[in-house]
Amino acid sequence: VSETSPPAPAPRPPTRLHPYGIVRGIEVAALLRTVPGVAFVLLTMDTVVVVPLLVVGIVAGGVLRVVAWQRHTIEVTATAVVERRGILNRRERTVELARLQQVEVEQGLVDRMLGTAVVRLETASDASEVELELKVLAVEEARRLRASLAPAAATGSGEAAPTGVELVRVPLHHVAIASLTGRRLLVVPALLGAAFGLLQDLELGDRATDVASDAVTRLGFVAGLLLAAVVVVLTALAALVTGVLRDGDFRIRVVGDDLHVRRGLLATREAVVPRGRLQLVAVHHGWLRRLLGFASLTIHSAGGAGGGGDVERQLTVPLVPTARARALALALLPDAGPLPDLRPHPPAALRRARVRGIVRCGWVPLVVAGLGLAWSDRAVTVVWLAVAAAVASSLVGWWLGTADHRRRASVLAGEWLAARSGALVVVEVLAPVAKAQGTVVWSSPLQRRRGLATLRVPVAGHGGGVTVLDLDAEVAEAWADDLLVPWTLSAANAAR
Amino acid sequence: VERLDRGIVRVWTVVGLVVTAPLLVPGLLLLAAGAPSGLVVAAFVLWAVAAAVAAGVVPSWRYRHTGWRLVDGVLEVRRGALLRSHSAVPVFRIQHVDLQQGPLDRWAGVRSLTVHTAAPAADVVLPGLRDADAEALRGRLLELSRQAVVAHGAGPEAGTGDGV
User: Fold this and answer.
1) Per-residue b/e over A211-222, b at no fewer than 16 CB within 10 Å?
2) Which of A135, A458, B72, B148 could cross-link B121 (Cys pair, CB 3.0–4.6 Å)?
3) Sheet holding A15-16, edge to edge
4) Which residues of A touch B143 (CB under 8 A)?
5) Can you give the pTM of this predicted structure?
6) What is the ipTM of this complex?
7) How much is the mean pLDDT over chain A?
């Protein structure tokens, strides 16, 4: 496939990392973990021995790091990046450019002052760790490396304008809204609960010790309320600040065949992802954001386990207006034609959705019964409480299930597989059919009784894939067959 | 549709016996403690029923509900009696193929074959193939996979190399 020979990035001799790497590579956490052990050993010794020992140890550690830095080189050839490191045990690692999934350049605060950056190269290996992490390069070195690595260069559009086309820019006030409506803020109710618990303790305690003093009780109540308010404001503020610092100045540009994702106000991260490697895009409509007219997007590329290592296998666009969300999702993926309308699922799925909703709320009566047992000695009260909670939670579950079914829809047509589901948080997943790694059709006895089945279409990486719950069983089988048609041998031979 | 080797039923029978063995413990304890004989008998009957189901019924049931075929470059596997699954993997998506054989498998003369793709959820396991069949199937899968990669090289995934 190499007819379009890359405009060969000039091979350069092996280079060392930036000297700041000598310090930046030190893992403070690992050092701190050794402190108790070392301290224990040192405390059992005499000062006359300890001081020289410490000095020698620190100097030796420093010298080792310098030598390690000196022996650590990076070479960029026309087809691969070669890393050589190690003092006695020399290790050589080669990362082929053709296998690169993602290139990320990160600049922390200190990095920005010194003009350095950390570069991470990611391939589609099973390992959950980053393939190659370079701590740290001078920033222009990092940019040059990224430019020569970016698969756009390898697929021919080499001298593409470095600016590209801007696809998304999230304004700062949208980032602010995103951080105030995000999952991080879910801690607020928990904190509030804790505050009210404290307040109740105060009240009860006061009553127990000093029944006469009503004023003190009222004071405790006001203090509790104030405390709660302060906690809420502080949490919101913290979420706002961290969110804005992390996601401020969020931009996605299309350069050649790559997406350049940039974010961060003080510490910046820039990831380059080849569009051809994107596996799916999910549009999340959380209930709060939906009320405000916004949604967020996650972009999954093939890569190791999500969450492992420092590279994000999942890129998140913090906030986009709902009206633009789907168009943007389609624009991010390589051109795959228009997306047809999603079709609702068979009515037989409605009952299952309601049952699922009720089962999911099943923990509520249990918790209420537990709390009741802790608070009250009367079994009758507890039973009534539990029954009331069961009725209420069943109604809520019934309603959630109905909402879930109403929103549930999917389609397999042309080059798209798309599925939407969810009651409070509605998630719409779009995946190009060409990314299916296989198909699995599942059915439980209950599903079979109603002629339903679940279709699962995994895509590369640990990001999962598309799961379409409760399709008509025949439709599920037919879709599974259709999905794999392009990859059958007869299709391959026809293409040849 | 092809079936697994009958040997796997023997393996599953032994597994069923092993899994239900802990259920013997209450009976033995009761016996040692000199509990009323009715209780002891009940405990042993409980174990006997569980063992009969796990070692006598389930293996042949599983066997009957497992089947596979390789048609037009797509490996299809059906598994499960209660929770049924029907997986399909195109040979083009195969990353590598594993053969495994535990001591029990060796005793029964079977092997299990795992087809790995780039997505762990799409991986497919065929638990009990006769030794020779397993090797033959692996060879065929890899050969077909090479053909498919050659054929699809100029297909929709051109330019992404490994088809990911």
Assistant:
1) eeeeeebeebee
2) A458
3) A15-16, A73-76, A80-85, A91-96
4) none
5) 0.76
6) 0.85
7) 80
